Amino acid sequence: MGRELPSDYKDLVDGYGDAVLLGHLFLPHPEGGDPLLTFMQEERRYFHSTYDDAQNIPEIVSIGWSQLIPWAYHDWNGDVCLLVPPLTGVDWSVAVAFRQRPDFLVVTGGVTEFIRRLLEEGNFPRGWPTGQRLWKTMEGSPVV
Q1: Beta bridge partners of 106
Q2: What are the angstrom distances between the C-alpha of 112 and each of 50, 121, 139?
Q3: Element (H, E) at 49
Q4: pTM for this model (two decimals)
Q5: How many Å apart are CA 51 and CA 54, to the nearest integer?
Q6: Residue 101: Cβ-neighbour burial (10 angstroms; 0-12, 13-18, 19+)
Q7: Among candidate residues 114, 115, 143, 131, the one with its CA nearest the CA of residue 14
Q8: pLDDT digits 0-9 by tens, 91-144
């Protein structure tokens, strides 16, 4: 995708990838049934075509627009999770792009903070169902 990915994201994918987290959050893996790079490229194209005309794009998302990296897909409602490169420093953010009504949620602190908010605080993005299974491997996954 043209740049080094954040280490907390790589750790999550290596440990839990090619699976569904929390019942609906698809997390691809480089060697999975839907290879990670293919997923990122396809979701980026779809994201840009869908959101190019969106209003009220958060500044951090707008500034990093060409470098946003899709990392997960929520199959309940079509939301996509994006890695947002840092404007300064090394700390990435996560943006959730809501597909039902084009809007964004931005979480600073990267993937670790995003997952912590889900698991420890029960702070889920708008419209995401709660109380789901924490982790399930993708059916037929070549990644064990």
Answers
A1: 95
A2: 27, 13, 26
A3: helix 36-51
A4: 0.90
A5: 5
A6: exposed
A7: 143
A8: 899 999 998 888 999 999 999 999 999 999 999 999 999 888 788 877 776 665
